[in-house]
Amino acid sequence: MNTANINEFISFILSHTQKLNREKPYKKSEDSFFDNPLLVETIQQIDYGVLIVNSSNYLLFMNKEAMRALNLHKEDYNIKDVSLLFQHKNITSIKKIDDCDYHFTYSNNKISTYNVKLKTLSDNNYLMITLKNITHVKNLQQELEVSKLKYDILVNNTPDVLIRLNKKGDVTYFNCGLTKEINIDPHKVINQNIFEVFPIDTAKQIKATSDKVLQTKNPSSFKTNILINENNYYFIIRLYPDIDDHVMCLARDISEKISIENKLEYLNIYDPLTGLFNRAYFENKLEYYNDPAFLPMGLVICDLNSLKLVNDTLGHSFGDTIIKESANIIQSPLSSYEEACRIGGDEFAIFFPNCSKSLLEKYKTTLLERLESYNLSNPKLPLSFSIGYSLRETVDTDMETIFIAADNNMYHEKLLQGIKNRNNIVQGLIKSLSSKEYKNEDTKQFLLDNVVKLAKAVNYPEHNLDNLKLFVNFHDLGQVSIPNNILYKTEPLTAEELNIIKRHSEVGYKISLSIPNLFHIADLILKHHEWWNGEGYPLNIKGNSIPLECRIFSIVESYTAMITNKPYKDAISRKAAVEELKRCAGKQFDPFIVDKFIEIIEEELDS
């Protein structure tokens, strides 16, 4: 029992009884008004507890509700001392929670809240104590506070802007989930007019819509965009009628949604890589240009040659770059009513309404001139187009037929120039390889001479030596795909960088398959990094499954690399290089061929 709280409460009551008039001692005869049955019954039926105490702290009267409040029974009614009454065993604590409100805690742990009031009666001779049960009210207040807290949390954390406006357009409430983004202090805009808060165009829209909502009592909405901190925000603003001639204004940021819609709308007709019109647009326009008003109607088809070879050797990222360069070359000479479309991975179509055959021929000439200019500036990887065109001159021919004719003309040109165009690409790749080569001419000759010596030492067929020499000269053709920052890196390679390095054997293989003069050594280029024990790449073949040419070359190439200074590594001595060959025999290298090569090296060192 918390007697401290109870005693404090009793002291509070007794302090008031001490103020009563003590000049007239209590006499029961003077309390005749308690004998009034109507008065007693009335007090018994009211919904709050009533206790009447005299100046001697003697309980004169207590109604039924007071007994319920104090958890008393009939047998407890004889308790006449007020101090004992409130220290009854069924009350374990009385705690003040407000000026007149107290928590009564009972022995069963139930808590009730009472509003306690004291009032003197009858010339200050009596003290009336009223106990009104306000537990339900307090519970409702608490629920209301919790509900308000939840509401505040929800509103304060919503990404929407919530504004309450009066009919003048003054802000009476402002909550902004975009406070940081739009740089508005919610506290400073209270009582400001919307024309002081928003840009004038937006404020006019809000005010006009607000007036409409107040007049019709129906919600309304509109979309608007606002420039905030140099960023364009899009909002949908909904206004709802509120009480007291107010309007609730809910502004939701739909910038991301608008951005997605714009992107989707863009992608409906545009190619995202080049910015040209896409295939869907082309097909719609093909039907559209059947209108005789566009006669004569021209169509040009351009195909970017050898794109697959570029993608296979240099990667799709580089391929994307030359597609964009090609699109620029195709687009730049066109007028506003001539439309270029990307209709395939490497294919473009250009519409020429109301044109002539000479105009189409002139455009083709312009393209070729622009290609030549580009290739002079980018000799390492020249671009080339196969170009075909057709002209619709009468309504007897539809645009689908014109498209087929232009495409056939393009394909015919592609067949005529195919080998030349492919050779130009390959020559560009070889030039690119030369710029990456760290070996000087003496080193290249040393490598070639020693490969031939070792081949003869292991009885390699004499008639195949020319192919072997060709393989030595083009073994690293695939290095064109390796970025210089990786090829010449001095620090240890990452796993990703190592994979890029290892890919060069496959790239060289694909390039050599495209070159008639190298086709027959493509397999050697693919396998020249295989190891005797099967731990090489890219196929993990081992032993005699590795071509003899590759086994010969890998030994001489490794030895040459070890004794040659490179941008990323200093050379070692020939003796140290020989020891390294011995260490790797049976692992990386064919042990029999290693022994033969060491014999050649030692003979040269002794001579």
Automatic annotation (TrEMBL):
Location of the GGDEF domain: 295-428
Domain PAS: start-end pairs: 147-217
Ranges in a coiled coil: none
A Pfam family the protein falls into: GGDEF
Gene3D superfamilies referenced in this protein's UniProt entry, alphabetically: 3.30.70.270, Hypothetical protein af1432, PAS domain
Residue ranges of every copy of the HD-GYP domain listed in the record: 418-607
Protein name as annotated: Diguanylate cyclase
